[in-house]
Model the fold of this input.
Amino acid sequence: MTVLIKGGTVVSASGQSLNEVLVDGEHIVALLQPGSTPAESAEAGAERVIDATGKYVIPGGVDVHTHMELPFGGTVASDDFESGTRAAAWGGTTTIIDFAVQRYGENVRDCLEQWMAKAEGNCAIDYGFHMIIGGVDDQSLKEMDLLVDEGITSFKLFMAYPGVFLSDDGQILRAMQQAAGNGGMIMMHAENGLAIDVLAEQAVERGETDPINHGYVRRAEFESEATHRAIQLAKVGAAPLYIVHLSASEALEQVAMARDKGANVFAETCPQYLYLNLEDHLGAPGFGGAAYVCSTPLRTKHEHHHQDLWKGLRTNDLSVVSTDHCPFCMKEQKELGLDDFRAIPNGIGGVEHRVDLIYQGVRQHEIGLARWVELCATTPARMFGLYPRKGVIQPGSDADIVLYDPAAGWTISADSHHMNLDHSAYEGIRLEGKVDLVMSRGRVIIEHDAYHGTKGDGQYLRRGLSQYLI
Ligand code: DUC
Ligand code: ZN
Ligand code: ZN
Done:
């Protein structure tokens, strides 16, 4: 099917144009000057013409950090690949990169196959995988090389969660050396988990068991120290490093210093760290703060974390916004930690709201329109080897296109969101701008406030190496 999108403002990472976008089948085939489509050419030939007057025409969002149906903290994340990718589509995201998980003692290959099976035939949008290496040993190191050849070109390690995911410094260095050899990217959960556990145990001994204590014990110093350590290890290991879910100003300073020296160090933040805080959210009355338990944690509003993170997004010390979508319902999931914050499953659901929430930064003059697109689509695609197939509107790219209506306004609520989640971390936040239409590889899957896709439309993406390194 051929589709012509006309009348809109095409926004790319480098600016805006009034081009018309011609789609043929699954791909974008041309960007045309407005009015250059005389009757005998493109418009007449297009089987469908979409009027985008007054709308932004942007590349579909690329969320490089999700955890669909992740088993974690004695339960399983409440969105599976079907519900989670559908919710992503509603919010203008047309690609996710999820995390396949290997724990200590497990075989990397078996784990990857399990994750492939969970996703296959269930996704509404295209998807790829990073591999979590929870047990660095000779076998998993060898597997890393094979995975890179198969399109899994990034590996997440943890400096937190002792006994579950944590790698010690020697293991981290070995994995970095391996990545240096195979071209892969090391992604790091940078928090000092052993130190956190000491403070957590002491808090519980004092009877301090409410959710807010999750934020108190996961100190910004522990994020900053781990970020610094990861950067130094990456320097020695000669691997590129991508810090995930950065939340604290002090950690950002470490990244900025490394980047100023020219290191291949990158970082992402997530909307929760730009909009939510420790006192008002993690400290909500009763057990309400459990909804906001995630790691790294929300930071105090009495320092400048939010402002510093927005600044980092402007200066490119933060290169990507992802969601770390990892939803757990209050009922029966977050409730596991009613008596002890350590047992609250860690995670916030937000895959549906990233594009909208970061657009608010445009409205509030924190970032420009082009930067919005760059942070939500173009850089994530380039960072993880999907560009130019994803993340850009240009001939040859997949026709993953979002029409965004800047004039629409609405309010986020669990009553109307599409995630399989009984609450919303962003409940009541008023938004300017709204996703109007979503096209995934040439098929319109969201239009007129309805989902028109089918599960299984989404295809697995073999990824290349990060294009920030080659
Ligand atoms: N952080 C979370 O909040 N959830 C899942 C894993 C993680 O690192
Ligand atoms: Zn993490
Ligand atoms: Zn995560």
Summary: The two ends are 35 Å apart (CA to CA). The chain has a mean pLDDT of 96. DSSP finds 14 helices and 21 strands in the chain. Residues 189, 244-245 surround zinc ion (ligand 2) (CB under 6 Å).
